[in-house]
Amino acid sequence: VEFSTLQFIKQLETSSIRKVQIQQIILLLLRILAITALVLMLAQPVTQGLMPGWLATEQRARLVVVIDNSASMNGKIDGESLLERAKSGAISLLPFFHDNTQATVVQTCPEKTIFTGSPHDPLLPSLIKDIEASYEFDDIWTVIDSLVTDPTIDELVKECVVFSNLMHRPDSTFLAKNFRDDWKFYFINPGEIYDNLSIQSVSSINRIKTPNELVKLNARIKNSGNLPKPNVPVELLFDNHRVGQVVAEFTPAREKEFIFQAYPGRKGIVRARVTLPEDDYTADNNWFISMPVMEQIKCGLIASTQEELTILEMVFRSIDPTNQFLFIESRLQPDINRLFIDELDVAVIHNPQNISEEAIAALDHFLKNGGGLIWFQGSGDPEVFNDNLATHLGFPVIEELKKTGTGFFKINYRKSNSDLLANLQVRNIQKELPEIFSYINAKTTRKHKVHLSLNTGDPFLLEFSKGSGTVFYFTSLLDLRWNDLPVRGLLIPLVYRLLILTGTDEINTAPVAVGSTKWIYIEQDYIRSTWEVESPSGQKTLIVPDFNREGILIPATDELGIYRVFANGELFTSFPTRLYYKEYIQEELSQENLDQMISEDNTQWLDLEADFAALFSEIRQGKALWKTFLLIAIALLLLESILGRPNPSKMKSPDNHD
């Protein structure tokens, strides 16, 4: 007979045995997993990196490190420039490359290989530290392309590490190229600039400046950072004296425009500057201008017929309809026997029939004293031509009058590299070039600079100097029977440019991008002077003039600011340097911007952070997992110990007896 109490005890015994069995199975699994984790730890596995570990350590390798030291790398984060951060990051990577690696370190501005050799060379860190900041533009994609397409690189492992705040994609011609697939690229971003206001442009509303006329400047300013900027003073300075100020608020990614008005106060070249308070990137906080200031221009128009005089008056009055700066005096002189032009700044002589020796002497005196002359030659008779124009004043010699009949001659603009036509305010200069029906074939010399020539090779517009004066010489008249220039849109901008060039120093004071060369034109009487160039920081350099081209070439403009040029110790001219437009702070590139060039499988993008070196190593060769498996094994063994320990409350006491 089975008693109910015994039946209950048997059921309890069965349940206890089942629990013990489950516990033992769990403990067995924990021990197996712990042992597996320890075995995996000893195997030292790693995650998949861009460069397999065995390949990176056993093969000959080539490492190219490109360090961007352009203007934008002068931006600062917590008081440290992006360039300094990049140099520190580059040095921290060197220990990760083995002795079989041939390392090449390149700076971008100017492009220069500063080291080639072992990455463990003790001199390499100091060479990297010596890379200097610049304010120039780096064509970094061209630098990278020239390095990775070097045919002498034959190593199996090829890696390129680029430290740069990449902000601009390559141009379309560069995108057509394909980087070689055997290169691995690491693009390292040294950091993001948060506090930045930039002067995008400052343009002059006035075309000509005089001491007694308000100069109007339009300044365009953008908040390129991520911080709102309240109560920011924007200042205009003339010769380091503040002449205008406005206080404004700037929200991120927004632009504002301001118009400053001020009197120059004096003649000559005024050094102007629009400035902002300092922020994390100071290279775009100043905009420099060399502003030639002149008084009113007195212009004399001399023609042989009333019809010609009327056309000249119409052209010159359209330049200054309100007579604010241009005072015009008209004279009808078919035969120029005497000239009274000493009081003029510019003389315009159109189609003179005869000119006397006395008039030539007056022209000679006028030009030597710095006057300007615009000459339209219409008479093609060599017998009438006064030879003293060529011998005394340097005019071209007249040979013959050429006519087309029913056709016309064209201006050969493609062969013109004239600075006179650069940045001319014409929408499409090719369409505005005149058709020539008649012209004077003039024999030029090496002293004549041809700005425009015909498809016959003969000159149409040329320039030469006499003393301190400048002469612009047309071989055709402002007459529809000679050409259609009077009805072309090119005429007014061209005449205005001639007027400015004969009265001011606009070309010599024109700005250049920092790092570019600058050509300064010199009058013949000044060519043998002692020439000296002073940089914005005050460093002076002697320059030897080019006697054949009558000018000086300034080869290095590596500072932002205004360069001043001196002749025999006296100021001759000055010109500003400007930040290249691609060096303004913008949004950085990402992998999506370069999919056409570099495969995503061969590229890694990293930020230069505190643990950058360790992160680079993990991305390059994979992350070591032995610590992870060790922690897993320890956790499993602890859990096994907890589950497998005996329960004292269920153990028999040795003092208990049945």
From TrEMBL:
Protein name per UniProt: Aerotolerance regulator N-terminal domain-containing protein
Record's keyword terms, sorted: Membrane, Transmembrane, Transmembrane helix
KW Membrane (keyword) present: yes
Aerotolerance regulator N-terminal domain mapped to chain residues: 1-45
Classification via InterPro entries: Aerotolerance_reg_N, Class_I_gatase-like, Double_TM_dom
Pfam families, A to Z: BatA
Transmembrane segments: 25-43
Organism: marine metagenome
Gene3D superfamilies: 3.40.50.880
NCBIfam families: two_anch
